[in-house]
C-alpha cells in the first residue's frame, strides 16, 4: 500500500467537500477584546469581533488577573514542571481548588486541563467503578460527554432534549435498585438552550439517581 498517496487522497477529499479544518491565527489584544485580527488560510489579514469565545466574563483580559499572573510567574516561574502525581501540584493549584469548592459549596474541587478531559475522565471513572451503573444522557450533550459514556461500555439511555417526561419514562423502565446517573448540561454548548435542572433534580430524587451537570457554559453567568 502506498500510504502517502492514500493519506494525500483523504486530505484532498476533506478539502474538496469543505471538511478540512483550518485554524485561524488570532491576534488577540487585551485592550480591544472582543475585537481582534486574524489570518485566513490564504495568509490575508482581517478584522473581526469574536462572538464564539468561551471567555464570557472576559477574565483573560481582566487587569487584576493579568497583574496577579505576572506576579506569580515572576515568583514561581512558568508551568508546574511535572504532572499532578509527581511534583506538579503547587500551592496555586490547591488555593484555586479550595476557592472553587467554597464557591460551589462542595467538599472539594479538582482541576483539569480542560472541560473535555474533565468530562471524559470523570464519566469513565464513575462508569467503571459503580457496578451496573446506567447512564441517562440528553441527546444534545457535548461530544466529550458522549465519549466519556461510550468509553466505559455501560448501559446508556438517551432522552429527548430537555424532555423531562421522556426522561422519567426511561428512569421508570430501569429496576429501582439499579444505580443510575443523569447527565446534562446546564446551558447547552451547541444550541444555547437552558436545561430544566430543578425538574431533573426532582426526578433524580424520586428514582434515586445521581446527577452530573456540565456547567462550563453557565458557571458565573446562570448556574445550576
Average pLDDT score = 93
- Can you say what the CATH homologous superfamily of the largest domain is? Type I PLP-dependent aspartate aminotransferase-like (Major domain)
Radius of gyration: 22 Å
The shape, in one word, is globular
Number of helices: 7
SSE pattern: HEEEHHHEHEHEHE
Named at the architecture level, the CATH assignment of the largest domain is 3-Layer(aba) Sandwich
The tally of structural domains comes to 2
User: Tell me, what is the CATH class of the largest domain?
Assistant: Alpha Beta
| Main structural class | alpha/beta
Helix content: 25-40%
Low-confidence stretches: none
Number of strands: 7
CATH topology title of the largest domain: Aspartate Aminotransferase, domain 2
Largest sheet: 4 strands, parallel
Strand content: 15-25%
Query: How far is the first residue's CA from the last residue's CA?
Result: 53 Å
Strand order of the largest sheet: 5-4-6-7
Amino acid at each position: 500500500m502506498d500510504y502517502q498517496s492514500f493519506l494525500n487522497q483523504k486530505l484532498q477529499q476533506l478539502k474538496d467537500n469543505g471538511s478540512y479544518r483550518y485554524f485561524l491565527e488570532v491576534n488577540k489584544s487585551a485592550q480591544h477584546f472582543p475585537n481582534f485580527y486574524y489570518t485566513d488560510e490564504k495568509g490575508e489579514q482581517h478584522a473581526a469581533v469574536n462572538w464564539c469565545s468561551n471567555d464570557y466574563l472576559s477574565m483573560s483580559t481582566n487587569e487584576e488577573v493579568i497583574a496577579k499572573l505576572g506576579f506569580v510567574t515572576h515568583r514561581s516561574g512558568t508551568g508546574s514542571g511535572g504532572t499532578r502525581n509527581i511534583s506538579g501540584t503547587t500551592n496555586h493549584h490547591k488555593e484555586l481548588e479550595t476557592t472553587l469548592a467554597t464557591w460551589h459549596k462542595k467538599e472539594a474541587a479538582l482541576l483539569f486541563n480542560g472541560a473535555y478531559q474533565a468530562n471524559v475522565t470523570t464519566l469513565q471513572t464513575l462508569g467503571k467503578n459503580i457496578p451496573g451503573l446506567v447512564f441517562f444522557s440528553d441527546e444534545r450533550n457535548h461530544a466529550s460527554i458522549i465519549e466519556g459514556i461510550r468509553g466505559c461500555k455501560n448501559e446508556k439511555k438517551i432522552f429527548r432534549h430537555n424532555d423531562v417526561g421522556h426522561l422519567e419514562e426511561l428512569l421508570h423502565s430501569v429496576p429501582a435498585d439499579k444505580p443510575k446517573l443523569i447527565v446534562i448540561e446546564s446551558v447547552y454548548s451547541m444550541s444555547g438552550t437552558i436545561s430544566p435542572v430543578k425538574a431533573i433534580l426532582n426526578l433524580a430524587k424520586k428514582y434515586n439517581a445521581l446527577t452530573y451537570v456540565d456547567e462550563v457554559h453557565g458557571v458565573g453567568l446562570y448556574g445550576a
